[in-house]
Amino acid sequence: GQQVMQIPQYQHVQEGEDFTTYCNSSTTLSNIQWYKQRPGGHPVFLIQLVKSGEVKKQKRLTFQFGEAKKNSSLHITATQTTDVGTYFCASSSGNTPLVFGKGTRLSVIA
Amino acid sequence: GAVVSQHPSWVICKSGTSVKIECRSLDFQATTMFWYRQFPKQSLMLMATSNEGSKATYEQGVEKDKFLINHASLTLSTLTVTSAHPEDSSFYICSARKGSNTEAFFGQGTRLTVV
Asked: Which of B42, B101, B106 to mutate to test binding with chain A, by most A CBs within 10 Å of its CB?
C-alpha cells in the first residue's frame, strides 16, 4: 500500500515566521490530503490535491503536489498562535483506508 | 457538511472489563468506516476497516478477538475493547468517507483509560 514519510517531526517557530512540512512517498500517489489536529482534538480535513504539480492556497496556507506525485508540502506564511497543532499528510487509493504520515507538530511562540 | 459523531468522548474502566465505543455518520450513509488508535504525540495507526454487513478487516498485529468491530447499519459502527488492560489505554478515533478518494470525516475521538 501507499506509505508516506513526513518531516520534520517537530517545528518551533516565532509568531510571524513561516513554516513548512514535507511529505514524501517512494511510490506515485493517487492523491494527497492534509489534516490538522489541534491538541486534544481530532483531525480536521484541510485540502486534497490530485493533479501533478497542483498548487492550492487557503489564506496563509499553500499546498503543493509534486510533478511526479511523490511529494507534497504545506507552507504557512507568517504563523499565528492559532496555527498550533499537528499537521498530517495522508493518502489513499480508491476505497483503501487513509494512510497517515507521522505528522509535524507545530509550536508557535508568541 | 458531513458529521461523524463518536461516543463516549472519554471513559475510565477497570482492568478486565469491556468498553464499547460508538461511531455514527449523522448525515450520510457509510458502508465503510475506519478505526484508528493514537498514542500521545504520535500519528494515527489504522486498526481496522469496518464493513457494513460483513466482517471487519483488521490490520496486521491488531487482535480481532480483543477489538471487536460491528457495523450493523449504514450509519453505525462500534468498537468494543474486550477484557481491557492498562496498555489498551489510548485515544481511539473513527472516520468515514462519503466515497472513494474523498476527504475523511473524523469522530471526536474516545480517550480510554484502563485502571
From this structure: B101
Cis peptide before B8 (omega within 30 of 0): yes
Q: Tell me, rounded to whole angstroms, the distance of Cα B67 from its chain centroid.
A: 9
Q: Give how far B51 is from chain A: nearest CA, Å.
A: 11
> What backbone torsions phi and psi does residue B7 show, to the nearest 5 degrees?
-145, 140
| Whole-angstrom distance, CA of residue A75 vs CA of residue A57 | 9
CA distance A16 to chain B (A): 25
B104 CB neighbours in chain A (<8 A) are 33, 35, 43, 45, 90, 98
| Torsion region of A52: left, alpha or beta (phi above 0 gives left; psi -120 to 50 gives alpha) | beta
The pLDDT of residue A96 is: 87
The grid cell for A88 is 498530517
Tell me how close the Cα of A20 comes to any Cα of chain B, in angstroms. Answer: 18
Query: Cα separation of B39 and A94, whole Å?
Result: 27
| Pairing of the two strands A71-76 and A61-65 | antiparallel
**Cα B79 from Cα B50, distance rounded (Å):** 9
Distance between the two ends of chain A, CA-based, in angstroms? 40
Is the peptide bond between B86 and the residue preceding it cis, with omega within 30 degrees of 0? no
Give me the mean pLDDT over the B83-105 stretch.
93
Which residues of chain A lie closer than 8 angstroms to B102, CB-CB?
48
pLDDT in tens, A56-75: 999 999 999 999 999 999 99
